[in-house]
Structure formats: structure tokens, C-alpha cells
Amino acid sequence: xxxxxxxxxxxxxxxxxxxxxxxxxxxxxxxxxxxxxxxxxxxxxxxxxxxxxxxxxxxxxxxxxxxxxxxxxxxxxxxxxxxxxxxxxxxxxxxxxxxxxxxxxxxxxxxxxxxxxxxxxxxxxxxxxxxxxxxxxxxxxxxxxxxxxxxxxxxxxxxxxxxxxxxxxxxx
Length: 172
Prior knowledge:
By secondary structure, the protein is α/β, with parallel strands linked by helices. It has two domains: 1-38, no CATH class; 53-171, 3-Layer(aba) Sandwich (Rossmann fold), CATH 3.40.50. It contains seven helices and six strands. The strands form two sheets. A four-stranded mixed β-sheet has the order 3-4-6-5, with helices on one face. The longest helix has 12 residues, at 69-80.
């Protein structure tokens, strides 16, 4: 499990999510500690978290679910500016190959929990508006590309902006 690899490689790792049932599920099923059900916008960060200095705050595929992403990121910055150096965000890429192909079929296929599609510009805009400095932006694919989709494999190998995911590192 990816979560366990992250926990095993970090000196200390905390997880925060607004979904209390999800937190309880992870604690019970996988025996994962240091998880908190917390609304980062309106809630206070527990002291046991704030006593640490973190290299990174990870926001993997979170920002597209947030109704006001600038406000969300401002709250992250405000609450963790003395405790973290950088954030890493990932989000589905609005320019991904599958979206491009689906436009020819007059389709938009999206997770119904998502509020936004982000492009390099729109992700950069919200991150800068929230007060962060962008260090790196890139495009990545999840896992290996299937041999069942040889055209996609060729296209995303040469044209990185068609890859599935945007990944950004930004500094406080």
C-alpha cells in the first residue's frame, strides 16, 4: 500500500482528512496511527502535530475537491508556515490525453466529487494567490502505460502535457 510506504520512509507522518469515517476505517483496517479527522479551514491543528518541523506537506489529489482552493491553501500556509518548508500537490491534469480524446466524443468524464479541472496555469495561479512560491511543476502518469493503449503511450512519452497528473512543489 502506498500509504504504508510513505509511513515507513518518513521519520514522522501525520494524516489529516475531513472524513471522520475514512479516518476510522484506516485506523481500524490498517492500524495506521497519527490520523486526525479535522477541517483544516475551521479547525485548530493539534499541538502534537505543530511541535514538529516537516520537510513537506503532501496534498495528493486533494485540491480538485475543495470549493475554494485559494482559501484552503491560505489556511495551510497560515497554520503550517512555521512548521513546514514545502508543499507537494498533485491533481488530475485538465489537458490529459483521455480528456482530449473524450472531447471528440462530446463527453466529459469526471469524478463527481471534483469541483475543478486544473491546468498548469490554473494550478499555478491558485498556489501563487495563496502566497506560495512555485519551485517545480511537471506532468506524471499513474503506473505503467498499458500495451492496450499504444497510441497513448507514444503520445504521452513525447508530449508530457498529455499526461494524467500535474505535480507541483511550492515553498512557504
